[in-house]
UniProtKB/TrEMBL annotation:
Pfam families: Glyco_trans_1_4, Glyco_transf_4. Transmembrane segments: none annotated. This is D-inositol 3-phosphate glycosyltransferase. PANTHER family: SULFOQUINOVOSYL TRANSFERASE SQD2 (PTHR45947:SF3). The keyword Glycosyltransferase applies. Residues 19-197 form the Glycosyltransferase subfamily 4-like N-terminal domain. InterPro entries: Glyco_trans_4-like_N, Glycosyltransferase_grp1. Keywords: Glycosyltransferase, Transferase. It comes from Agrococcus terreus.
Length: 399
């Protein structure tokens, strides 16, 4: 296989400045591919009315072309926009004819992935599809009656199977999420490739930050943050704990009210949206990271915490057991069980300094194989049509 630079088109329904795992991964992917000398074109939704068009944008220190398509705001949602569905096939056809990319890599099959995979197939262009979505995770934002959520999820997975079936290669961030995707769609051969992490952007704090618990992510129902607030309210007072919930979302007011109801308002801070710099600072000033979500396909936020040297307490669900080993770098708690979560947090907060240092070291060891350069190399090879062995992220821990 030649190592010539590729022309890569990345189609995504969510992209910077959106704040979520898929957008963060896609932004890093485009920037790192550009840094390696490839010609990258990102196709994404416009940021609002009248803000469509093609521009060179700078993200993560790299400049590449972004084609912003006319978009609509999803009903009842503060920021989620989708490219206008009635234009998506014509937009895909015209861009593919103009750019003639070597490969199309879509990050969501809902709108743009659907259109670009269809039009790429007609033109014999290689298609790579990545799934970042669990439909069970988004039903609360679907505007559908709860009574039909189960039926809607089944229909959605059948639809996903038809779109991903057009791909030459399908990927998702972890082996567990790959197995889940295969189970739900009937696909086979799904690759597990970590979203990766630029580890050099994170560093442990040499001083232990006692009592500071932190969560980073979207403040929405699927993250199960009510469980976390109820858990910390059960912690013994002598621990002098404080919880920082870092991120924006539609549950901020609700969680603030819950903290007041539980007489914990003075110990719970809801920051709202913060910059990447402040996010890293909040991690460095924490003692333990909490992730109560039950529907993480990988959890970039948890990996960021581990790269900062934090022990982790996380729900024993979906991909989180890939990142947390009981008694080694943290603890897994029973999903939606605030008492069990509180007990596991207390275990971390009561560790001796020597024990805590071991947990820190294990988090750093476990996140090391998720280096983003390994991820970029894997995708380069898939783009070129090479067979790959999925990167191995398993780690044998040592003290």
């Amino acid at each position: 296989m030649t190592d010539r630079a590729l022309r890569i088109l990345i189609a995504t329904d969510t992209f910077a400045p959106d704040v979520n795992g898929a957008a963060k991964f896609t932004t890093r992917l485009a920037a790192r591919l550009t840094r390696r000398g490839h010609e990258v074109h990102v196709v994404a939704s416009s940021l609002g009315r009248g803000r469509h068009g093609t521009r060179v944008e700078e993200h993560d220190g790299q400049r590449f072309t972004v084609h912003r398509l006319r978009s609509i705001l999803y009903p009842g949602h503060e920021w989620l926009r989708f490219a206008e569905p009635w234009r998506m096939y014509s937009n895909a056809a015209s861009l593919l004819d103009a750019l003639r990319p070597d490969v199309v890599h879509f990050q969501s099959h809902l709108v743009l992935g659907r259109a670009f995979s269809t039009e790429a197939n007609k033109r014999g262009i290689r298609v790579v599809g990545t799934n970042h979505l669990m439909f069970e995770n988004v039903m609360d934002h679907s505007n559908l009656p709860r009574a039909i959520h189960g039926t809607a999820v089944d229909i959605a997975w059948r639809d996903a199977a038809s779109v991903f079936g057009r791909c030459d290669v399908v990927t998702t961030p972890t082996r567990r999420s790959a197995d889940y995707l295969e189970q739900k769609t009937g696909l086979t051969g799904v690759h597990a490739i970590s979203c990766g992490l630029p580890g050099d952007e994170y560093s442990p704090n040499p001083e232990r930050q006692r009592g500071r618990i932190v969560f980073v992510g979207r403040v929405t129902s699927e993250k199960r943050l009510e469980t976390l607030v109820r858990a910390v309210a059960r912690l013994p007072q002598d621990l002098d704990w404080h919880l920082d919930i870092v991120g924006g979302g539609d549950q901020i007011d609700e969680l603030g009210a819950l903290a007041r109801e539980l007489s914990a308002a003075d110990r719970v801070t809801l920051t709202g949206f913060v910059s990447d710099e402040e996010l890293r600072d909040r991690l460095r000033h924490a003692e333990v990271f909490a992730m109560p979500s039950t529907a993480e396909l990988q959890s970039i936020a948890t990996m960021e915490a581990m790269a900062t040297g934090l022990p982790v307490v996380a729900a024993d669900a979906m991909a989180l057991p890939h990142l947390v080993r009981d008694g080694e770098n943290g603890w897994l708690h029973r999903p939606d069980d605030p008492q069990d979560l509180a007990e596991k947090l207390e275990r971390i907060l009561r560790l001796s300094d020597e024990e805590y240092a071991v947990f820190q070291a294990h988090s750093l060891q476990m996140v090391a194989p998720h280096d983003i350069e390994t991820t970029i190399t894997a995708y380069e090879r898939l783009y070129r049509g090479e067979d790959i062995v999925d990167p191995d992220t398993r780690v044998e821990l040592h003290d």
